[in-house]
Here is the input.
Amino acid sequence: MYRGKQYLCSMASVMTPVRMARMLRPRPDDAHKGTMGHALLVAGSAGVGGCAVLAAESCLRAGVGKLTVCTPVCNRLLVQVSVPEAVLRTLPHLGVNAPSSDARGYSQWQAVGIGPGIGPDAGVLLHSVLALSAPLPLAVDADALRVLAVCPEWVGLLRGRAVLTPHGGEMLALARGLLACEGGLSGGDALLRAVCRLAVEAGVWVVLKGHPTHVCHPDGRVDLCPRGNAGMATAGAGDVLTGIVTGLLAQGYEPGQAASLGVWLHATAGDRAAGRLGQEAMLARDIIAHLCEAWSELHKAG
Here is the structure.
């Protein structure tokens, strides 16, 4: 477990359109799908195949050239019909199977996203992906974070390459499981300090989802996103963020860039959706539908 000193976050830097635009990587005129990155998404289980669909669609909208979705066979038809652009790799059960049985199998991908809807019993799967995918960058979310919280010995497999995207409840589990924090984390400041400590000690990038959303870097820096709204408090919104971050990582963005840029695009698209539909009527898929406008605004700012 990580029992180091209590890290205090340095003053947060507020994200702006111009600052985010500076992170953009030019898309070459002669680009093709083979040069724009190939992402692997491990997502979904029986009854929650929609997690895989949402993460996959948002990953593609983030600009990645190719995408492979690894999901249980029960989700085959749903994913193929909903996301025809993706390559499908089905497994009998994500709890005991993995996308590849050796490290060489991961050489075809440039980044891996894992967690949305994989279920709480996917420990074997998660350890296999973490161990065999190195040194590929990772986006880790949802059920994968819950599993990680009870397996602190696996955290070393994430150092220098992983973006974790917990909401408050998942971060609380991580703080107790990985940092041995007991109680006293209900306040926003205390939880944010735990996020910063995890980022610094584990050498990972941690996105604490909320309003505002914070991105904590391993060097102690904190980025704050002033955008986003209560309409994004809807099922699947986190899966959309996972897909965006995974897509950016696969295109070659550094983890810190992918985390901050992904949060910005996600929040901007959410604000555009809320402006048209109203917060109460928003669905996660509406965030995806407005990613094109978020990208357009970002390019204009640059």
